Every structure is written in structure tokens, then in C-alpha cells.
Amino acid sequence: MKSTLLGGLSPRVFLHEYWQKKPLLIRGAFPGFTGLLSPGDIMELACRDNAQSRLVTRKHGLWQVRHGPFMPRSFSGLPPAKWTLLVQDVNHFLPSARALLLEFNFIPHARLDDLMVSYAAAGGGVGPHFDSYDVFLLQGMGRRRWQISAQQDRTLIAEAPLKILQDFRPEQEWLLEPGDMLYLPPGYAHNGIAEEHCMTYSIGFRAPSHQELAVQFLVHLQDNSDIEGMYSDPDLARQRHPGRLPPAMLRQAATVLNNIKWRRSDIERFLGTYLTEPKSHVFFTPPIRTVTRKKFIHQIREGKLALNLKSRMLCGKKTVFLNGEAYPVSAITRQSLEKLADTCTLPAGGNLDDEAVSLCYEWYLDGFIDI
Ligand code: SIN
Ligand code: CO
Fold it and tell me: Which atom of ligand 1 is closest in space to residue 126's alpha carbon?
């Protein structure tokens, strides 16, 4: 699959001028791209209980959403138009989907969410809405009309079962053909309407809200703090108003709380574990028949080692993060494992130090790595 991903723009120019700022339509971003899945494949994925899927239909102007897992017969009674089936995390199931995500390697994996695929009948779509994500909407099979708007009015239809803008006023409109791609920054209103049976591949980049970051950090602190000492009041005086919150108690509590400190390394540990934490429906399966460590090393040298499709890996300064766990490592181990975090594989002929081999073998036994 040849990539002219940014339509002649260098990643640097794209990031400087468009990323998080304004939409960009790229005609022929992936020349010859007609998709990674057939309609049958996506329906089959939507029937799996480890995939998150939704079926959005519209009848007499009324929106309806059903959540998967579906039964194959759920799709046999569908009308000829105005429905769409969406499956999240398709990169957990298809090596080619992960390869597609890796085309966006000029953006940190820490920002990456997933590849969502939608399959719609003519007139189908999820309605006018906005996302809090950066998204690249890559057209697979068939054509889809995209309308977009920079409107600030984000009022949603209160009674709709999904986020639909009450008053969508499109400002620009394009018909996307297979291989065309539209980049949208967060908060940009958009509406995709299938012109005919079509599939859209959404490469989504998450950005946690400050509220979410702060709350999750506080949760992390709760699990990782060890604050010494205990409230004490040896000089307690007789109380005339025992029902009052004593000012001295407030002062002491304020001193204790104001002394809670964290370092950059605590924030790194929090971010690394938080951003690599598997979603709640994701489980890893250890290999049924395991190879010995010796054979494992041989497989690494052959270039056969790859992160499991569901794994998320990030590198910190002295720590490697994998699927919500933090692994403190030496500088040399970190360096050799960074390749795995960057590309999801290790090159053939590479030589890992003992610490890196031991970690990889442990991850292989956990099902985080495949050979
Ligand atoms: C779709 O593929 O129908 C929805 C994608 C989106 O609007 O984010
Ligand atoms: Co959207």
C-alpha cells in the first residue's frame, strides 16, 4: 500500500498548519485503497463478544442505536438504506489495520486511540456531530459525502440516543472516493452520509480532558502513595462548642495536604500506566504451547517477535510501559525495547541484552507479545 498520506505535505508542515487547527482534505491519500475488510468481515467482527460495535438506524427521522455483540441474523432484516454498523478497535483483530495505524507514526502512540470501521448503506451515517478527538476519516469501499462546519453552536438534540447536533449548518462539503481522507481537529462539526454502500476507516487520536487527567492522577496517587504520620492533638484544650470543626484541626490537615508532593517521575509513571491500560473489555490470552527461552531468542533474531495486536507500549526515560504496567529498565534495555514500542516489532538480526530478553519472554508468556 503506497502512502501519499498527507497529499504532498511533510508531517512537519501538516502538524504546524493543520493538526489541532483546521481540517484538511487529502485526495488520494492512499491511492488504490479500497479497504481492509469486506462487508461480511465487519459483520462477523460485530458478532464477536470481544469487539465493541454499534448499529445506528434512522426510521421516519428517529435515530436508534443498538449495541453489539450481534447475531448474524441481526443483519438479515436490515432495510436497503439508512443504517450504519460501526466497530471499534479493528486494529486489535487485523494486522493490516495495525499497519495502517503505523502509517501515522509521525504522531506519538500516546495520542493514538484506535481504528474504527463503519459500514453503511446508502443514506446511512451517525448524523451531524462533533468529536473530542482528532480524526483522519479514510474512505474505503464506496463513496461518502462529508459536510463540515466550524460552528460554535454545539447544542445536541436532547432526546436522541446518540450525540446529534440540533442545528447543523454545513459550510463545506465533499464527496470522498476510495483512498481519499479528511482530517478533522477536535470539536469540528461533521456529518458523513453514505452515497452508496460504503466503508469509512476512522483513525482516532484521543486527548484526555484536564478533568480526566487530574482525576486519574489522583486515583494513581491513592494507589501509589505512602504518607507517614497521623493526626495528633496532645495540646487539646477543653471545647466549649464540641460540635465545631476545630480551626487547629483544619490548620493541621492543610499542612499535611499541602505537603503532598510529586515528582516528574511520578507523573511519567502515571501517564505511562494510564495511557497503556487496556480498555475494560480487552483480555490477553497466554500462548497454549510455549517455546523455550532458547527457541524464543532464536525467533527474536529471525525478526519474528511482534507486540500482540491488543498491546499498548510506551517508553519513558528509565521505564517501559506495557498494558498498564511499569517496568523500570537499564538504559541499554530501554534503548533496544524502544524499537518495539515505535514499530511494534523488532528487526531481524538484532541482539537483545539479557534483561530485555527476560522481559520479552515474560511478556510472551503473558500474551502481550507474539512470535
Ligand atoms: C462514520 O464512519 O460513519 C462515523 C465517523 C465519524 O463521524 O467520526
Ligand atoms: Co465523528
Answer: 3
CATH of the domain at 188: 2.60.120.650
Question: Among residues 171, 187, 176, 170, which one has the least CA distance to residue 118?
Answer: 176
Asked if 281 contacts 230 with a C-beta cutoff of 8 angstroms, the reply is no
**How confident is the model over 178-215, as pLDDT tens digits?**
999 999 999 999 999 999 999 999 999 999 999 999 99
Do 163 and 102 have their domain in common? yes
Number of domains in the chain: 2
The pLDDT value recorded for residue 2 is 46
pTM as predicted: 0.94
Beta-carbon neighbours within 5 Å of ion ligand 2:
131
Closest CA to 334 of 359, 311, 309, 301: 359
Phi and psi angles of residue 197, each rounded to the nearest 5 degrees, phi first = -55, 120
Instruction: Based on the fold, state whether residues 36 and 114 are members of the same structural domain.
Output: yes
Contact at 8 Å (CB) between 155 and 165? yes
Ligand 1, atom 4, residue with closest C-alpha: 126
List % helix, strand, coil for the chain (3-state, nearest 5).
30, 25, 50
Give the chain's mean pLDDT: 95
217 and 311 belong to one structural domain:
yes
β 319-322/83-87 pair status: unpaired
Structural domain including 63 reads 11-205
